[in-house]
Amino acid sequence: MDMAIVLLLLLLPFVGAEWQVCGGSSGNYTSNNTYQANLLLLSSTLPNKAVSNTTLFATATAGHDPDIVYALALCRGDTTDASDCETCVAAAFPDAQQICPYNKDATLYYDASMLRFSNHNFLVANSTQDQMSWITLRNNLNFTTGGDSAKHLLLMRLNSTAQAAANSSRRFTTSRLGINLIPTVYCLMQTQLTQEGVADYCCGGFTTVNTSMLYLFCCMDEKTKTSQPGKVNLNDQAATNRLEEDELVWRLEEKSSEFTLFDFSEILHATHNFSKENLLGQGGFGPVYKGQLPDGMQIAVKRLASHSGQGFTEFKNEVELIAKLQHNNLVKLLGCCIQGEEKLLVYEYLPNKSLDFFIFERNRTAFIDWNNRRAIIEGIAQGLLYLHKHSRLHIIHRDLKASNILLDKDMNPKFSDFGLAKIFSSNDIQGSTKRVVGTYGYMSPEYASEGIYSIKSDVFIFGVLLLEILSGKGNSGFYQYGDFLNLIGYSWQLWEGGTWVELLDASIVKEICTSDARRYINIALTCVQESADDRPTMSDVVAMLNSESVILPDPNQPNGI
Predict the structure, then answer these.
(1) 20 to 30 A Cα–Cα from 303, which one of 153, 171, 290, 547?
(2) 484-538 pLDDT, tens digit each
(3) Which residue has the higher pLDDT, 407 or 284?
């Protein structure tokens, strides 16, 4: 009959590569009686039957009541030598009679196989006979450090591993749960159930840690690490329940040893209970706080506001994307916290705040000279080029702006806020959405009016940023430039009139050479062209910035000025 069998490998090494469970309420048999004869009969047939099955699993019965014997044999799904499996199962029968002498119910676990026999029909999927004879999760895992978060994550791992095994042709899979709250857990699962059967029989039971619905064995087996890990994909739709949130976290921790699941109490302590003194700023996501961990490391904590338009979808999007990206011009995500209604992102702390703090404040522009600005411009260009072309995920940021470009201690720019970012394939030309979100003043015309976005949308944003960095003025908002309501129109007027030097921030006019100033303004206006087809790619932009030998195109009048 169908039965699910889980080996959850954790914590303690094997002694002699075996574990056993003897007895229960089944009673004993006597030497040379009919029950023992039935055992001997099964020992001659069950080992070969197991290796003859593609799933390395077999069940059998021998005799009649009251001496009937039910037996089950299983070899690990990654076993490559059938003879080793057969030998292991065959040896388990005499071992059982020595380890559990005259017990009618015995279970032996080995590194490569397991055997159970009993006078009770435990082969029935809904059998509740002798559940306490199995080693349960509650009795063998220590959650004193991990708390409820670790319990939820582990239960989520068991559910997903069971589903993955049911979908496998050999009904076998392995997986790993690596988080900082508990020791690394290695899961090995084999099942004779279909995916539907696993859901009905197994996964419904994974609601509490003390479940005995599945057979669990706990140890730390280094050999399991060499097995191919099972993979369970997140649903692309918005995750709204707690288990989906937990699954997001363990997947991220599994992929990066540097990613940390923080406890909410840690964040509270680090930020002095989110005190006003620790508040760094406010964004669409919610407030951002400075914090300090016990080891002295400074962090920045983004706290999802309950009223935020950005929900778990954007939270998940940002965490999943930025955790997979590594570049000098991207802010480093250290970890996150999901606890109840609280959802927080923990980043490296960058002491020089954001770009807008310097370029839009008259009393601070002197602190950011032309050399700093040029390095920032080049860093932004390199960061976008990485997202568009060189990262293993090709990404359109969609919401880059001066306020979410952070500056490190050396004034190097780093992108943050990936909640609106989109992944695209190398074959995609553009995408579209009915939900236009972002920041007006940075949106390309086609995105603002029709919801169409592409890598050229980010190029438009770069052009706006370049004009802002050169001028020290924002594209829209509190500024009005003569007859124009935005910086793009004003810049075009000066360009057409040959007075483009007037665009430059007064603090850098004496530092920047005329040819460089003209070149950078030309590049900016080329990037903000009305038609996406007329804009360069970021590869082109980087080439223009790095080489004066690259001939720049003459820009046309931008849109809506």
Answers:
(1) 153
(2) 668 998 999 999 999 999 999 999 999 999 999 999 999 999 999 999 999 999 9
(3) 407
Three-class DSSP category at 515: helix
- 434-456 residue pLDDT tens: 565 667 788 888 888 888 888 99
Residue 36: helix, strand or coil by DSSP? helix
Report DSSP letters for 56-104, one per residue.
Answer: SEEEEEES-TTS-EEEEEEE-TT---HHHHHHHHHHHHHHHHHHSTTBS
26-39 CB burial, b ≥16 within 10 A, e <16 = beebeeeebbbebb
The answer, yes or no, to whether residue 162 has pLDDT greater than 70, is no
How confident is the model at residue 308, as a pLDDT? 52
CA distance 212 to 123: 15
Residue 238: band (very low, low, confident or very high) from pLDDT cuts 50, 70, 90 = very low
The domains of the chain, with CATH numbers, are 1-232 (3.30.430.20), 254-348 (3.30.200.20), 355-546 (1.10.510.10)
Could you count the other beta carbons within 10 Å of the beta carbon of residue 560? 12
Q: Is 399 a known active-site residue? A: yes
Quote the tokens at residue 386.
Answer: 């990485």
C-alpha–C-alpha distance, residues 459 and 51, integer Å: 60
Q: Select from 406, 402, 415, 407 the least CA-distant residue to 326.
A: 415
SS3 232: coil
Classified as helix, coil or strand, 516 is helix
Catalytic residue among 263, 399, 505, 540: 399
488: number of Cβ within 10 Å: 25
